[in-house]
Amino acid sequence: MRTDLTTTPDGLVTGDDGLARPAWAASDAMLREYYDTEWGMPVHDERGVFERLSLEAFQSGLSWRTILAKRPAFRAAFADFDPDVVTTFGDDDVERLMADAGIVRNRAKIRATITNAAATIALRADGGLADLVWSFRPEETPAPRTIAEVPTTSDESVALSKTLRKRGFVFVGPTTMHALMEALGIVDTHLVGSHRRGSSGVWG
């Protein structure tokens, strides 16, 4: 058991480095690194947004740690999430991916990634996936003080979900889209007392 962690009244955990993080990011080295360097930082390129959208879809019903641990294998399996390559995947590729123990072998989610690659390419004529997703940035970001105050959906994530579905995307429900918005820095749901609050530079 770790003895160098102390929990604050708002549920944050202070590590041996003196920095406060939510419990999910406090004790696991991989999640801690992800939280400290990547989660909530702005992503504006098409491939980066497509990767995160795809991984959030795969995460549905699973832990994020499971997906993060498998991310290198996902990148190898899906051509580093290049939409131009993924959209060419056929039935043989689906079977190849279903046999790949390094990823989450869910046929519906694999096919969804291929579908979403084609939808991503189609969006280029209208500004692209990244611009569309970022256009749903709210006027204000949440300011949760405890994990219980962190929202799992928002009016904007519902609207983004509906818009993406109209544009041919699948596995883009409001909760998944809210998680995407958090991961991309479109909203800042770092707890107010966390050392990462405001680190994205998107919100003052």
Automatic annotation (TrEMBL):
<keyword id="KW-0326">Glycosidase</keyword>
<dbReference type="Pfam" id="PF03352">
    <property type="entry name" value="Adenine_glyco"/>
</dbReference>
<protein>
    <submittedName>
        <fullName>DNA-3-methyladenine glycosylase I</fullName>
        <ecNumber>3.2.2.20</ecNumber>
    </submittedName>
</protein>
<keyword id="KW-0378">Hydrolase</keyword>
<dbReference type="InterPro" id="IPR011257">
    <property type="entry name" value="DNA_glycosylase"/>
</dbReference>
<dbReference type="InterPro" id="IPR052891">
    <property type="entry name" value="DNA-3mA_glycosylase"/>
</dbReference>
<dbReference type="GO" id="GO:0008725">
    <property type="term" value="F:DNA-3-methyladenine glycosylase activity"/>
</dbReference>
<dbReference type="InterPro" id="IPR005019">
    <property type="entry name" value="Adenine_glyco"/>
</dbReference>
